[in-house]
Here is the input.
Amino acid sequence: MNKNIDNKPSLNQIVLDPSCMDDYDPNAMSVAQARQFIQQFLSPIAETDTVATMQALGRVLAADIISPSNVPNHNNSAMDGYAFKFSEGIKVAKIIGTAYAGKAFAGVVNASECVKIMTGAVIPTGADTVVMQERIAIKSNCITLLEVPIKGANVRMAGEDMKIGQIVLAKGHVLQPADLGLLASLGTGQVSVFRKLKVAFFSTGDELVSVGKNLADGQIYDSNRYTIFGMLSRLGVEISDCGVVPDNPELLEKTLLKAASENDVVITSGGVSVGEADYMKALLAKHGQVLFWKINMKPGRPLAYGKISSYGTVGLHDKTAHYFGLPGNPVSAMVTFYQFVREALICLMGSAAKPLPMFKVVCTEAIKKATGRTEFQRGILFEEEGSWKVKPLPNQGSGVLSSMSLANCFIVLDDATGNCDAGKVVSVQLLEGII
Ligand code: AMP
Ligand code: MG
Here is the structure.
C-alpha cells in the first residue's frame, strides 16, 4: 500500500483498513487523539486577497508585515517640558525656541540652552533630555531645573516601537484591533490576507422544523443551525446555510454534493450516531472518505470527520471538501464544534490554532464523574471574596441548550479524573472570547 511521504497512511487507507494504524480504535478515541488525527489531513488554503487595512479585522495575514520605517521615526518628547543638552550639575538653561508636535524646532540646542517642547515633538538637534514642565521654574527667559532628570529622560527613541526591517506581524496572524492601528502606524493601507474559508452547513432530521413554521406533534425547532451560524460568524468565515434536510437519502445526497462542490468545508449536525447513521454513513462512503468515531467524551460522543467529493456529479464543479459530522444534540453539537471544528477551521484559514487557554480554579460544588472519558461540563465562573471560583450548572443534559446559554465556561475534567469533592481545583475554559 502506498503511504504519504511522511509515512502516514492516507485517509482512504484508514477508511479501507483501520488496522493499518497502530493505536487506532474508532470506537474509543480520546479527545487529544481525535484532534491530532484531524490535524494531519488539514492543509491551509493558498489563495489570497488584498484588502484595505480598515477591512482586515479578523483576517489571516498571507505574508509577514515588515516595518518599512522606524516607529517612531524620530526621537521625540514623551512629556510637555523643556529639551536640553544634559551635563553634570546643570542648573539653568536659556529658552531659545519652541518645538511643537508636527512642527520641529529648526535650530541647534547648545550647552546651557533649552527649547520648550510639547509631547510628540521631535527632539531638536543637540538636545538629549527633557525635563517636565512641573519640575522647573522660569525667570527672565531662563529655566531653573528644580530637579535634574537623568540623561535621556522623557525621550522616546526612534524605532523604540518598531525598527525598520523588523517583522512586526507574521504570516498566519489573525488581525486584531491593535494590529489595524499598528499597520496604520507603518503607513500600510492594504494587506495581503488568505481568502475567506467557505463553510456550508445543514441540519438533518425528520423531526426538525425551521423557525417561522408551526410545529406538528413530535417535531422540534432546528436550533443547531443557529448555534453553528453564530460560532462560524465569530470565526469570520464565508457562510452558506443549506437549511434543514429531512432523513431522506435523495435530498441528503443532493444537498451534500452541492455543498461540497461550492465550499471548502461542509458541516452537518445529526444523523452520525449509531442506528441513525445509515443514510448519512452510506452517502459519505459513496462520495468520500469519512471516519466515524466514538469519542471518550461527554457530551459529544459521536463525531465524523473526512472528505467528500462532488466529482462526476452532473451540473456541479468537481471539488473535494472537508467534512465534519456533528452529533444532533444541541449541547453536543456546540461542544464538538468548540473542541474539534474551531481549531481545524482556524488551521484551514491559514493560521496556527492555539490551544484554548485553561485556568485552574476552585469548584465550590461536588461533581459526579466517571473516569475514562473527558467531560466538558457547563459552568459558571463567579467572584467570591476577591477570588474567582466555579460551579457546575445543575442540568448537564446534552439536549439542555439553556445550560450553554447560562454558562460562561467549560469545566474540563480529563480522562483520569473521577468524582470531585466540593473545594477541589478544576480546569476551566472561558466561553466568552473562544471565537
Ligand atoms: P441525532 O444525532 O440525529 O440522533 O440527534 C440526537 C438528538 O438531537 C435528537 O433528540 C434530535 O432530535 C436532536 N437534534 C438533532 N438535530 C437537531 C437540531 N438541528 N436542533 C435541535 N435538536 C436537534
Ligand atoms: Mg437525527
Remarks:
- The chain has four domains: 11-45+196-348, 50-68+168-194, 76-156, 358-430.
